[in-house]
Design brief:
The complex is a heterodimer of chains A (about 750) and B (about 625). With about 750 residues, chain A is an alpha+beta fold. Chain A has 32 helices and 23 strands. Helix content of chain A is about 50%, strand content about 15%. The chains are: A alpha+beta (about 750), B alpha/beta (about 625).
């Protein structure tokens, strides 16, 4: 406990800074750092050493990372986004003959400016102009600026002058925060801001060859000795310092840690930590401390403090003892929401894992929260640390689609690039790992394989894709259209089938295309449907190639109605149809079509000779029309020619003559020979035309079976009753009875009842 | 009359949500084209649209004028045109002609095409071929389920029947799968699934894939509907081909119910105006008689009318308060106007149907179903054709004869067709070719009569993996086996004495006690067994050995109430008779059935779908 604050250095009255080792460097570095241009990404990001120098600064905005370059001609060029390299040349700086003594990029209102120092003057360069600026309250006597530093958030600026004087203020150059005179005139190697969100005392860290100085708004600075060449990396909440052999972190001690660990602190967290230690020693003091916190009503706060402080500790031991204290305190609270404690445990476990020097991502808790777990996973994936990433996902129970599946998919995409492994092995390895994890798209992986020129592997991988629809686009791209077609059909998505069909149509010659269709009935009917509306000729070709004469016949029949206007054309189309039907061995259709041709020609002649409308009437209607027009002879002739059966002819004539109300002709007709349809229809049709007189004539001729019906139709109930009684037919008797109405048929009804009674006696 | 549900009958889920969803989506789509616009609507979509969003809602969202998509040049002068269409090629041509005419005239407007229920790649292709793909913007209105009634959802896709069962076109199957997916998202998963038919199986598999892709969404939800049963129309053509004698079916056969409403002509309204009437459970009088055999309906209505008169007379001697009560309770609930309309409709039907013709017709149908006096029935059909009674009716009877008899004997097959062509015109040669392909009108003892290609193709079909591949000719290989199935499933009830239609004892009442609808019997049997076990022979006779399936998941989450709710999906359409029969079964067993159909159909619609008419 006592030694805990040993590495704390006060800066001013209220703040402490501490520096601790993250891990020692295990890199195989041949050059000295001083020989390299060093760039390091924040958030514990990777470090790049480059020994070809080109002066450049990288900066970060909401839109991504930008880069500013100082060219050999002393001109500045700037790109707001390295992902989208659009270089923009900045205006010339008047009178700039040599490289500026120092320069940096400022970001204000989302626009990048360049601040540069030439001798005693400072210039601010934006897209439009170059203006001279003066920092407020700058001590006099400056003849040149040796270093400048802008803070992580681009809010603050520090300037180091040749007089060993440091000016600290806002990046807008409108306000001075403080100044410090370090009395070292040697130009510093590096100067960076060291601050954190809600910092009590912002500081600037200045590094010379062997000396590190932390200065702030305080008369004294903190000084460290550097044993080796070191490089500073500004972070969100501190500064990373690495050298050939070690990697350290310098930051302002966070509030919670300070509260707890400050010597003789009486903060609730400090008391709780103490209480827990006493409790472990089984000392009654534990109770005293606890009581003290509870009396002040600060137990909740104490637990929170311990949890928070644990997050800021680098050493797992210290994290543990703080968490143990929090856990102990929680026991005495009724309703302390467990989330913060649980999440802190989880987060620390993840952080400790990535901080390991094998992984080398020394994130602090604040950085981790700012960065988010997704980005951290992305980084692990980029560095191909797949197992660790998967373990983290599983440990944090991330949904598979965002977590494990995504990482496995990345792994698989990397795997397909291993050219020295055979297609079979890669495919098998991938399938073994991925199985059918939800959210993994085998088609994406296959696409990657295809992108690397491994078509066979891609096809193998596609086999594992459960959604056949997903396989299709890539198969098409790989020119495996036939395979694509069967996959599309499997998917049941007709649109997809159609897409493939059109591909195939362009890719294959017509014969092959039709051949392919022939083996895929589903695709064939789909394409046929399309052709019916859009490409009639193709439809015909399709039937032709299949020797489908039946459908060809139907096709030509349809054409005879739709496409042809002239009678000759129609007959010709019908002839083609009839030929096709013969080939299809469909004699019936062939004959019917030939009849139709005859009928058409005949109708044409009738129109010419008799006038009126005959074309496209049915045979029945043609004959009817002839009778209605008084051309009985012609009608007879037609009936004979087309062998109209007798029954039909009788029905037809009966109806037509009744329509004409030609009762005389009807009677003549009825007597021409014995009616094949009986005489009831005559009765019915006369009654339909309300001619009871005529109806009665035929009623007498109706055969015995239908006599009752006929008599009832003409309204002769009494006689109907007689016939029914004579027939002794129960059904007929009830039929007649149902027709007996009230007064008029009373006698008849009685008669029937009597007959019934009699019949029952027997 | 009007049998009440058992007190333990489960509540139906609220399907009005589907309407709200559809409306909100449509409004969203309309607002994608801000400002005033004219809306062109495909004729087939007008009635469904009217049930979702009326004109005033359209106007609220800046629809200026409404036009029907038809083969006429549009007179719209608006700067923005919006087309609401089914994904059909002929619609694309219409739009293309309009846009190209504008281009010729040097006019630029904004065009937006909204496809319902989805767009097809072929349509976009045509737009591209016509050179206007870049000029129009395309959207989808995923409106696939219209609640026509509390227990009836219709996809309003009558073309499904012809496209799939005649042309072998599978494009709508995906739409069905999407609709089922929507239902399971809204009303929870279905713990028990059954199905029969090739299309049923494909739709089911596609639907399963969709559910798997969006894993987790329905997981953990409590099922609201315990069972789903998918059935292809071609499993049972017989029922759909019979004349309907239950009131609602009869109204459909006589007046054509369109999208849940019917236009009663002057002969019904007894005035010179026609009246459009919504027919559903909200019309209390209609609801009481819809499932009744029509012979009961007229008596029932007259009785009601008399009662009302009596009550009306009672008003003398009431005080104001009683009077108020009387008006609000009795008159409002009863909707006198509708009652009178029903009486009018009923009278009109009675006039037509009690005629001897109708009795004879029904008698013939019953003879066909029972399989006796075939010669007499054949002569009856011949006379029907000779007299030119009605092309559709004649065709229907021929099909009924063919299916019940496993095809016509060659002599009849030829002579009936010849007669038919002579009566109704030679173009029906194509109709017969269609009917044969669909298996509706065939010749006995096939094999040698199949052309070489057809038999080859039908062999191909039987060889291919089940459920994945279908073909237009598939039905050629089938025999209907109706007689054997009828015997196995006891479809013709043995009746001692009169069948009392007032107190039905089985589902046969919907056909005057003569025949239990095959489709409904299959559903009943499977639900009873909770599987196809023991029905192997029936399944084989139905030619569905590869396409009968059961899929059960654990039921622990399903409440006993939900397990008595059954969603029946008819692929290719269902008739009101089948609905009535299943409603009856539900009342008997304490189930409630919910119906999802690609469209409500009847014999005439099926026949029309197969008919070729001159363009």
């Amino acid at each position: 406990m006592d030694c805990y604050t040993a590495n704390w250095n006060p800066l001013g009255d209220s703040a402490f800074y501490r520096k601790y080792e993250l891990y020692s460097m295990d890199w195989d570095l041949k050059e000295e750092l001083r020989d390299c241009l060093v760039a390091a990404a924040p958030y514990g990001g990777p470090i790049v050493l480059q020994n070809r120098v080109l002066d450049a600064r990288i900066f970060h905005t909401e839109f991504g990372s930008g880069v500013a370059i100082l060219t050999g001609a002393h001109r500045f060029t700037l790109s707001a986004n390295v992902g989208d390299l659009k270089l923009r040349r900045m205006p010339e700086v008047p009178g700039l003959q040599s490289a500026p003594s120092c320069w940096t990029v400022l970001c204000q209102d989302r626009v990048a400016h360049i601040l540069l120092a030439v001798g005693p003057d400072l210039y601010l360069l934006d897209h439009a102009a170059c203006s001279a600026v003066t920092p407020p309250g700058l001590a006099p006597g400056v003849s040149s600026f040796l270093q400048m530093a802008v803070s992580f958030t681009y809010r603050h600026l520090a300037l180091f002058t040749d007089t060993g004087y440091i000016w600290m203020g806002t990046a807008s150059l409108k306000e001075k925060l403080c100044e410090f005179n370090c009395n070292i005139r040697a130009p510093p190697k590096q100067m960076v801001w060291c601050s954190r969100p809600r910092s009590k005392e912002r500081a600037v860290v200045v590094a010379w060859e062997r000396r590190l100085m932390v200065v702030g708004d305080a008369p004294e600075s903190i000084q460290f000795v550097l044993d080796e060449d070191s490089y500073l990396v500004p972070e969100l909440d501190g500064v990373r310092i690495f050298s050939r052999s070690t990697h350290e972190f310098l930051h302002e001690v966070p509030a919670a840690s300070e509260e707890i660990f400050k010597i003789a602190s009486m903060a609730p967290g400090a008391l709780l930590l103490e209480a827990q230690k006493e409790y472990e020693k089984e000392s009654q003091k534990a109770d005293e401390y606890l009581r003290e916190i509870q009396e002040l009503g600060q137990l909740t706060q104490a637990v929170q403090q311990c949890i928070e402080a644990a997050g800021h500790e680098h050493q797992p031991d210290m994290q543990k003892s703080l968490l143990r204290a929090a856990s102990f305190g929680k026991c005495f609270l009724d309703r302390f929401p467990p989330d913060s404690f649980v999440h802190m445990c989880q987060d620390l476990r993840v952080l400790n894992a990535v901080r390991d020097y094998h992984i080398g991502i020394p994130l602090t808790y604040s950085q981790y929260k700012q960065l988010t777990i997704q980005v951290l996973l992305d980084r692990l994936v980029l560095r191909r640390l797949y197992p660790l990433a998967i373990q983290i996902c599983e440990y944090l129970r991330l949904p598979e689609v965002q977590g494990v599946s995504r990482i496995l998919a990345h792994w698989a995409c990397y795997k397909v690039q291993q050219k020295d492994v055979s297609d079979e092995d890669v495919a098998r390895a991938i399938n073994q790992k991925l199985g059918d994890t939800p959210g993994v798209s085998y088609s994406d992986i296959a696409a990657r394989a295809y992108g690397c020129g491994r078509t066979e592997l891609a096809i193998k991988l596609l086999e594992y894709e459960p959604r056949s629809g997903e396989q299709v686009p890539l198969l098409l791209k790989m020119k495996r259209s036939k395979l694509a077609l069967s996959k599309a059909i499997e998917s049941g998505d007709t649109d997809l089938v159609f897409t493939v069909l059109l591909h195939l149509k362009n890719e294959l010659n017509r014969g092959d295309f039709f051949m392919t269709l022939r083996n895929q009935p589903m695709a064939l009917s789909l394409y046929r449907q399309f052709c019916k509306h859009q490409e009639l000729e193709t439809l015909k070709d399709l039937y032709n190639q299949d020797d489908n004469h039946q459908e060809l016949g139907s096709f030509h029949i349809r054409a005879s109605y739709a496409a042809e206007e002239r009678i000759e054309g129609r007959v010709a189309a019908l002839q083609t149809a009839a030929d096709a039907f013969y080939k299809a061995k469909n004699e019936f259709a062939a004959k019917a079509t030939e009849d139709q041709m005859r009928l058409l020609r005949l109708q044409r002649r009738l129109e010419d000779e008799l006038g009126g409308q005959f074309l496209d009437l049915s045979l029945h209607d043609t004959v009817t029309t002839l009778i209605l027009g008084g051309h009985n002879k012609r009608a007879e002739q037609l009936a004979r020619d087309f062998r109209i059966p007798d029954k039909r002819l009788w029905w037809l004539k009966l109806t037509a003559l009744a329509d004409l109300e030609d009762w005389e002709e009807l009677e003549k007709f009825s007597k021409s020979k014995k009616s094949p349809i009986g005489y009831l229809p005559f009765v019915e049709i006369c009654m339909k035309q309300h001619n009871k007189y005529e109806a009665k004539k035929y009623a007498s001729r109706v055969g015995p079976e239908q006599k009752v019906k006929a008599l009832l139709l003409v309204g002769d109930v009494a006689q109907a009753a007689d016939v029914a009684i004579e027939h002794r037919n129960e059904a007929e008797l009830s039929l007649v009875l149902s027709h007996c109405t009230g007064a008029t048929d009373g006698a008849t009804a009685d008669k029937i009842q009597r007959a019934r009674a009699q019949a029952q006696k027997k | 009359m009007a049998f009440p549900h058992r007190p333990d009958a489960p509540e139906l889920p609220d399907f009005s949500m589907l309407k709200r969803l559809a409306r909100d989506q449509l409004i969203y789509l309309l607002e994608q084209l801000p400002g005033k616009k004219d809306l062109f609507i495909e004729a087939d979509l007008m009635s469904p649209l009217d049930r979702i969003a009326n004109v005033s809602i359209l106007k609220q969202h800046e629809v200026d004028k409404l036009y029907k998509v038809e083969n006429k040049p549009a007179l719209s002068s608006n700067e923005q045109l919006c087309f609401l269409v089914r994904p059909r090629i002929k619609n694309m041509r219409y739009i293309a002609s309009l846009v190209n005419a504008d281009k010729l005239a040097g006019r630029t407007r904004k065009y937006k095409v909204i496809f319902s229920p989805q767009k097809f790649y072929a349509c976009e292709m045509v737009l591209e071929e016509e050179g206007i793909y870049g000029d129009v913007s395309c959207d989808e209105w995923a409106f696939s389920l219209l609640p026509l009634d509390v227990d009836l959802l219709s996809m309003e896709l009558p073309e499904f029947f012809r496209d799939y069962f005649l042309e072998g076109d599978q494009r709508w199957i995906n739409t069905v799968a999407q609709a089922l997916h929507l239902l399971s998202t809204l009303y929870g998963p279905f713990p028990n699934c059954y199905g029969i038919g090739r299309c049923a199986k494909m739709a089911y598999e596609l639907w399963r894939n969709l559910e798997e892709e969006e894993d987790g969404e329905t997981k953990g939800r409590r099922p609201e509907i315990g069972h789903i049963f998918l059935l292809d129309r071609d499993v049972d053509f017989v029922t759909a081909l019979c004349s309907q004698v239950v009131y609602e079916g009869l109204v459909d056969d006589t007046f054509r119910i369109k999208c849940g409403s019917v236009d009663f002509g002057p002969e019904v309204t007894s005035s010179d105006k026609s009246l459009k009437v919504l027919l559903n459970a909200e019309d209390k009088v209609f609801n009481e008689i819809r499932n009744e055999h029509f012979s009961n309906v007229f008596g029932f209505l007259s009785q009601k009318a008399r009662n009302l008169q009596a009550q009306y007379d009672r008003r003398r001697g009431m005080d104001i308060k009683q009077m108020k009560n009387f008006v609000s309770q009795e008159l409002k609930g009863l909707k006198q106007e509708h009652r009178l309309l029903n009486i009018g409709a009923c009278e009109s039907i009675m006039k037509k149907k009690t005629k001897q013709d109708f009795q004879e017709l029904i008698k013939t149908e019953h003879a066909l179903l029972e399989g006796f006096n075939i010669r007499e029935s054949t002569s009856y059909i011949e006379e029907h054709i000779d007299r030119q009674v009605s092309p559709i009716e004649s065709l229907r009877l021929m099909c009924l004869l063919s299916i019940t008899e496993n095809g016509l004997i060659p002599k009849d097959y030829r002579s009936l067709k010849t007669q038919y062509l002579q009566s109704y015109g030679p173009e029906h040669l194509l109709t017969f070719s269609n009917l044969r392909r669909a298996g509706l009108l065939t010749e006995q003892a096939p094999g040698d009569t199949l052309t070489a290609v057809e038999s080859k193709v039908s062999k191909l079909v039987t060889d291919k993996a089940a459920g994945k591949i279908t073909d237009a000719f598939s039905s050629l290989a089938k025999r209907s086996n109706f007689r054997a199935i009828s015997k196995k499933l006891n479809l013709i009830p043995r009746v001692d004495g009169e069948y009392d239609l007032k107190v039905p004892r089985d589902m046969a009442y919907v056909f005057g006690g003569a025949y239990v609808p095959l489709s409904c019997r299959i559903i009943e049997q499977v639900l009873e067994r909770r599987s196809w076990q023991g029905l192997d022979e029936v399944v084989r006779l139905l030619n569905c050995s590869d396409f009968a399936f059961t899929d059960m998941t654990k039921e622990d989450k399903a409440s006993s109430e939900s397990l008595r709710l059954i969603l029946v999906v008819f692929l290719g359409g269902c008739t009101f008779s089948e609905i009535s029969a299943l409603r009856f079964l539900g009342r008997e067993k304490g189930y409630r059935f919910i119906f999802l159909t690609t469209a409500v159909t009847n014999s005439a619609r099926l026949m029309e779908a197969m008919s070729e008419v001159k363009a």
